[in-house]
Structure formats: C-alpha cells, structure tokens
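User: I'm putting together notes for a lab meeting next week and I want to include a structural view of one of the chains we've been expressing. I don't have a solved structure, so I'd like a prediction I can at least talk through. The sequence is below, exactly as it appears in our construct file.
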Amino acid sequence: MPPIVVVSLVPAIANVVLIIAIVIRHLLIGRRTRHVEALAARLRLPAIELVEGDGPIEPPELNAAETEVFADLLVKYGRQLTGASRDRIVRYWESSGLLDEHVRMLQSYFPWKRASAAFTLGDVGPPHVAPLLVGLLDDPERDVRAAAARSLGRLGAVEAIEPLITASVRGRLPRDVADMALLDIGSPAVESLAALTGHADPEVRTSALQIIGLIGAATDIGPMVDHLVDPAASVRSASAGALGRLGASEARDALVVALDDRVPAVRTAAARALGQMGGQHATEALIPIARADSFEPARAAAQSLGRIDPALVLRMAVDHDAGPHLLEAADRVAL
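Assistant: Thanks for the context. Below is the predicted structure for the 335-residue chain, given as structure tokens.
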C-alpha cells in the first residue's frame, strides 16, 4: 500500500476508534445509571421507614453498592428534613461509619473530595463537626471554602459567624456565599452579630449590621442606632439601611438627623429608611432633601415621599421649585 494512502487512513482509523470508545462509554454510563436508579427505587421505602420510625435505627442488610445508594437517599432527605427525622439520619451516619469516613475526607489531598465531604456534612452531620468546617474556611481551594460555608449555615453553627464574615471581608469567600450561610443560621446569629458591630474593622461592622437588618427584629435596633454616627460612612449607611428594613420607627428621629450627614450615600440610605417608616416628622425632613440635595439623596427622598404621602407629592410637583426628582416621583404615583 502506498505510503500516502497509509498516512490518509491513520486519521480515519483513529476517528473510528474514538467514536467506538465514546459509544462504549455512553453505554456503560447508561447501564450504571439504570442500575443505580433500580437500587434507589428498591431502597426508597427502607430509607423512608428509617427516617420516619421511632424505634432503634435498623438499616437493611446492604452490599457496598446498595450502601452507597442508601446513603445518597438519606443525604437527599437530610436536605429537606429537620427535627427528629433529621436526627435519625445523623444517627445512621454515625453508627454506620459514614460520618467518620467523610470527616477523614475533609483532610484528603484531592480538593474535590474535601469539597464533597464538606457539602455532605451540612446535610447529615451533627453539630460537633462545625469546628472542622470552620477550619476549611482557610482551605487553599475556593470550592472547598464555599462548601464549608454552606454547610456551616445548614448546621446553624453560631460559632462560625465571625469566621464567615471575616472570610468574606478578606476575600476568601464570595459575599453572597457568606451571607447565605449567615441567613441560614437565622435569628440565633443576632447576638453574635451585634457583638461584631464593635469590631475594629469597619467592613466587619458593615457586614454584621447588614445581616442583622435581614434576620433581626425591631427589638434589635440598639447597635444600629448607635452606629448612625460611626466614623466609617459604610457603617453609617448599613445602619440606616438595616433600620429601614426592620421598620424600627423608634429610630426615626436619629435617621432624620442622618439626613444631614456629609456623605451622600448615608443621606441616601437614611432617606430610603424613612420612607419605610413614614410619619409626619419624616415627611417634613424629606421635602428639602428631595428638592435640593445631590442626585442620589434627592431621588431617594422623593421616592420615599411618594411612598409615605402620594397626594403630597402630586401637589408639590406643580411648584416651580419641585425639581426633577419630585416630578419623577409624581409620575410614578400617577401611573
């Protein structure tokens, strides 16, 4: 056979071999998927009986493949359940050795194994694994840090609040990942967050106040009012925003004072917060801001007036000194 023909056939043969390999791989994957689905269908009832039972934990006799599928089913249930049902799942993981196995995986050389174990422990781990997950917030791999943060939130780990905020401020965690974990911890985090409002780093104070505004109650306004006069403008803005979200009308007078802040962002946050509270005092304070302040504070004040007293905004819009922001607010009211 001429050499040129041989050379031309080599790529064709290689392509055929590659196609055959891909087809075989797809067949094997499909076969495994069907096998796993069949096992899951058969084991779903025993898994539900374990979760919903009230007696001793008695899992069925399983081989290695069945144990893996059974554990995966319990992980999925663990993401949806709380209380006694989740406690039973945790006890199964402890008694079966799966918990110890995943704890060991947290020290794996492979980042994907560390991340996978950290993620799973948030669904089926007991509270005492939280310190191990806190340690992973310093892991060199971003995915591992994110998985640990998510699981700390799922576990309600109050001891992780400061490490989570610090990791976010230092750039080791995306802000939204840390915030979601803190939101998952919920109201039990408020006391620790309030303590962090006295932190030396203004970014930590800012983050703590913002989260209190999302998960706190009107009774938690003490730190926020105090920080309306914080040395850092970002902290003053966060305080005003949090007070507005909580609807803490007791802070109305302090927010009116904040309308005179030298930083436009703080005046903007205070104007928005007053719009969420309303009241005659707020209305009177917002009018000059809406008419004559710089762009963002004036616009926020005009929008707040539209929320508090739409009829007043319509009347003011006809004045020659109404300004563009009151006109815009009046247009919104008229829609």
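A couple of points you could mention at the meeting. DSSP finds 19 helices and no strands in the chain. The chain has a mean pLDDT of 87.

User: Perfect, that's what I needed.
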